[in-house]
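Onboarding guide, step 5: your first structure request.
Type a short instruction followed by the sequence, for example:

Predict the 3D structure of this protein.
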Amino acid sequence: MENWINPITLSGDHVILEPMSSDHVMALQQASADGELWRLWYTHIPEPDKTADYVNEALAAQQRREMLPFVVRHKASGQVIGSTRFCNIDNVHRRVEIGYTWYAKSFQRSAVNSECKLLLLQHAFEALEVIAVEFRTHWHNRASRAAIARLGAKQDGVLRNHQRSADGSYRDTVVFSITNGEWSAVKQNLRFQLAR
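The system replies with structure tokens like these:
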């Protein structure tokens, strides 16, 4: 399998995306405790006592070349405030998904998400030369759906009964994407949002 997605640190004005490691377990526990994020039923954020498993699973998927997980570090404070990753890596068609994204409650509705997405999308389209980047979220995660649409991603459709959740319920997954032809306008829009 071609090695075209490798660990890298991406840095902006507000955040640094650094490759996830087992050294980040305690910091991620503290980040998810800010707002008790694991209580959100429609997304998967680790409970404090399951954070080590969450990190180990992400690193095992990275070893299998299925994902590239990052922690999100707030530049001004140096604090780890969340996580994101490239996943569903399609080596043949050079497509990726950006997912598993979450931030500590006190850093939501700030420049953090826009800059994280700008850094990841810029790396995907300009360094990795992907043809499309996908985003997927739970039908009931309205905040996530709105945030993805604000990026400039277009909704491709809804995968009905796509996955079974841990509680046994079925998840309808909303799929969005940005194509390489749309990247220039999306990049301009993200920079505009950050400047505001």
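Each response can be followed by summary notes, for example: The chain has one domain: 10-195.
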